[in-house]
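Build the 3D complex.
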Amino acid sequence: MDTLAKAMSKFRLAVVQLHVSKVKADNLSRAQKLVKEAAGQGAKVVVLPECFNSPYGTSFFPEYAERIPGESTQLLSEAAKENAVYLVGGSIPEEDGGKLYNTCPVFGPDGTLLLKHRKIHLVDIDIPGKIRFQEAETLSPGSSFSVFDTPFCKVGVGICYDMRFAELAQIYTKRGCQLLVYPGAFNMTTGPAHWELLQKGRAVDNQVYVAAASTARDETASYVAWGHSSVVSPWGEVISQAGTEETVVYADIDLQYLSDVRQQIPISSQRRSDLYSVTAVQEG
Amino acid sequence: MDTLAKAMSKFRLAVVQLHVSKVKADNLSRAQKLVKEAAGQGAKVVVLPECFNSPYGTSFFPEYAERIPGESTQLLSEAAKENAVYLVGGSIPEEDGGKLYNTCPVFGPDGTLLLKHRKIHLVDIDIPGKIRFQEAETLSPGSSFSVFDTPFCKVGVGICYDMRFAELAQIYTKRGCQLLVYPGAFNMTTGPAHWELLQKGRAVDNQVYVAAASTARDETASYVAWGHSSVVSPWGEVISQAGTEETVVYADIDLQYLSDVRQQIPISSQRRSDLYSVTAVQEG
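Done.
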């Protein structure tokens, strides 16, 4: 491996576990501050949580929704540029053509909007006595796969409940992603049961790094997030994890290690394409 | 639900964590004894571990290989019939047409051979300083999906390393399986890292029960098995797990509970078939 390739095989990832209040301006300024803090620690890719500018709840989405570009994405673009980072902008309620989406905008280190991922799978859970949440009450689903390039590796983007669908991760991996990022906000029922397990599963099945950014836990909110933002290695180990408070966690992504894991257990080359396949049917 | 349907929605599963020695006759008689023990405890489906009649190792396979029908499968057929159980006969090295396979024979409660699953994905691992194992040194892979019917539910069969490939479980689930069984024998490196995680991942991603049967640990063997035979619920919880010794673990499979989980988090109906699909390309 030459020197440049070696330099490009490692980079620092930051996952921001943001506290989200009802005051949008506060949410934005704290996000801005923590992106800067992360960059100061050497992060080249920074991930914010789902619904970082608005409380999470179908009744809040119409009120906090913005067009893209708009106030929140303008701020994210500037934060990406000022800190020269790839910024996975969690998600915001997006308004477009009279519909609302749960949308993750991604910015390059020059401030350009690289893509926006509209949550493909809307939350639809009803666990009696525990939690009921139906995003479709106010949101519409997206229909696009979302992959962006960095000088380090390709990155696939999903939002929260998207993580439950193995196919999305499989298609991103087929397209060459070595890192999958999921801004999210699991709750106090599904969080302890599935948040870490799903990340580990996606990581081991696809031999990729997986990062999931949650909002900080706020017991006074109508929707209480589990927290525990994490980064998982291609071997399935949690290499970095937050508790429940607002914080930034870091992980040094090592693509040579990923390559070693893929060589040690070569499932990617052993898949039986003569027997089965996972394919993208169409793209929006 | 009528009375019959209710009765059929629950059944006891037994997973036999067999000690395997170099003496085939001993392995067979212990297997026979433990199948009987399991049936005595009310098990209707019994699962043996991978390579239950032979030490696990490419050098042993040619020596212990049998045709089907042969000595080992004859004994399994009788054990299934005598105890009136569905018997997932772990696996044996099978000889057919000059080739060797790692084959799981499944018998119905009347002793009929319902199917044989030849391991589709052959182990190919090389973790420096830890373990190297290449089944292809002596084995050939199978090319069939393997699903059998019971009065309770459909059951999908994979062997050990097959568990690493999410697609197999996805296709079995699409075909209506509610229980996946994996006779296996992970080792002391991949066992602690991935054995339980893979089972939980398959269970949660597909909302099915997953059972994995390992051989007991034998520190004197050339290949030391991890043990920890397990049954995992559709919610991703380990509901039954062995330690390292020879034993039988039981789980009461509850298909109404499975149905409840699928209703609470309806990912099966939420899959975006307009965007992606997992399909069987051909069947052997």
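Residues 54 and 63 of chain B are 9 Å apart (CA to CA).
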